[in-house]
Amino acid sequence: MASLNEIRSRLAASANRTTTTTSGGDNSIFPFWNIEEGKTATVRLLPDGNPKNTFFWVERAMIRLEFPNIKGDSDSKRVTVRVPCVEMWNDTCPILTEVRTWFKDKSLEEMGRKYWKKRDYFFQGFVRENPLEEESTPENPIRRLIIGPQIFNIIKSALMDPELEELPTDYLRGLDFRIIKGSKGGYADYGTSTWARKETALSASEQAAIDTYGLYDLSTFLPKKPSEIELKVMTEMFEASVDGQSYDLERWGQYFRPPGVSAPNGEVVTEVAPIPKAQPKPAPVSSVVEDDTPFDTEPAPPAAPKVAAGSSKAEDILAMIRERQKSV
What we know:
It is built from 9 helices and 9 strands. By secondary structure, it is of the alpha+beta class.
């Protein structure tokens, strides 16, 4: 288990890099996003079961590709396919390489937001106060949590507080975290979530659960790294999505599919760890809060080809993509 100082050093290094260079589920997942507005869920976060991980969380970055329908299916409606951003593995993402250039043109900024990676974070812990009436809870009380950037930033900021003397995941001197659901501007808001002030030890039953079930290796819930072929498929799907084309199940189905859609061989894709579903009241957290788009924090990209006046944004963008491909 990493020490608090090690975590602080890694977070500080990460913050410095950001400033200078970058911008199927199961009931083990605790769906805190379903709690009512004004309610609080209290969780006790635990270390990652992977001893090589400095942090007690792992980051997932996904890109959403929308299509108007499925090719050849007259009854299908708009579908979304989520593909992993390979920046999770410190590789160059072909989609974001293109999208980064769009933020230098105000008219393309909205499209840039649409195709920018969406980050969330996997944690694990005990749910000590649960305002939800869940139909069933797993035998293993160690729950997984999928945390968005708003709550994650609250967790991360507290770790840099010099008055914090011990890791909040410490078994004897740890801290509970209170997830408080409010609303702001018609959207769900978790900005008042906070760490408890009083340290507490794990209970005998909680310690017994860790001894019995062990801790999750959180990295096992991340998507697998795309192969070279899958990267090419992702790029092709991206261009088709920008162009407003239908999702081609026969062409791409063996690689990436919408949830619940069967592959040509009959296999059905499932979500290993779903993004929290939107609730009608209040609405989910605004994408403005959740996105970590580059804007002015990104280094200036190569100059983009000039866009013809009066053409559609999709056509303009595709022309830019294809122009660059010719020069490669």
